[in-house]
Amino acid sequence: METMVGKAIGEIQSIRPFLKWAGSKRLILSTLAGYWSDDFERYIEPFAGSSSLFFYLQPKRAILGDINSDLIETYKQIKHNVDDVSSDLARMTKGKDEYYRIRSIDIKTLSPSQRAARFIYLNKLSFNGLYRTNQKGVFNVPFGGEKAGPVPTKESLQRCSKALQRVQLFSGDFGLVLERAQPGDFVYLDPPYSVKSRRIFNEYDKSSFSTAELKRLRQWLDKLTKLGVVFLLSYAKSSEAKLLMDGYPTKEINVRRNIAGFSQYRRNAKEWLASNRDLLNERKNVSEKNR
Hints:
Helix 4 packs across helix 7. The two termini are 22 Å apart. The N terminus is likely disordered. It is built from 12 helices and 7 strands. The chain has a domain of 185 residues: Rossmann fold, CATH 3.40.50. A 7-stranded mixed sheet has the order 3-2-1-4-5-7-6, sandwiched between helices.
C-alpha cells in the first residue's frame, strides 16, 4: 500500500490541532502515518483527544469519538459554528485570575459556542494539557503559568473546521464507535494508559480507564481482525501492553515525554505500536492464491 507520509508533508499541508492533550502523538506522526493509505475508505479514532493524527492525514472520510462529551461537543461547535466560537474565544484574556474566573463559570449558563470557547481556553492555559474532573464532573486542572498558550487563531480554527466537515462525531464508549467499523476502514487506537508499574496520569473521566477496559479493548482488536478491518494501536511499553498486543506484530519506538510539566523531567519513554495490517495482507494473499 502506498502510504500518505509524502502527501502529508508535501502535497497536503498538515493542520495543527486546536487542542493540546496529555499523551499526544504529535512528535511521532510521521511514524504513525506510515500505516495509513489513501486506499482506506474511512479513518476511525475512538479515543480522539486532540486528534493530531487525523489532522495530519486529513482523510476523505472519518469517524471521531470520545467518552469525553465536552470534547466532542467542542468538536461539533468547531465543525458547525466556528465563527461564533472564535469570537467568544477572542473575548477571553490570558492570565491567572481570568483563568480561574472562567474555570469557575457554570457551563449551564453558557451558549454552546461559549462552552466550546471556554473548553479551548482552559485546555490551552491549563497545566500540561491535562484533562481532569472531580467526582461531580467539574474540570479542576490548575493554571499552567504564564508560558501556557497561546489560544488558537480564527484562521487555525477555520482550517480545523474545514477538515471536520468530512467527519462523523460520536460521544461515548469506544465500543460504540468501533461497532461502526467495516472492511476497508482504518482504526487508530490510542487509549488512556492504565499502567501499574509507573505513575501515569489517567484521570480522564469520572470513570477512568481500567484493566477491565483493556481486556475489552483486546477483544475488540480480535473482532476487528476477524472482520478484516486494519487497526493501529499505540500504548506505553508495559505488561498491560503485552495483554493488548499479544499475537500481533509490534514495533518499539521512543517518545519524548514532558513528565509533570517541567523541562528538567523530560525523558524518552518507550511505547509499542501494534497493527494487524501485515496479518490481513497475508490472509488476503493466501486467499487469492487458493482461488
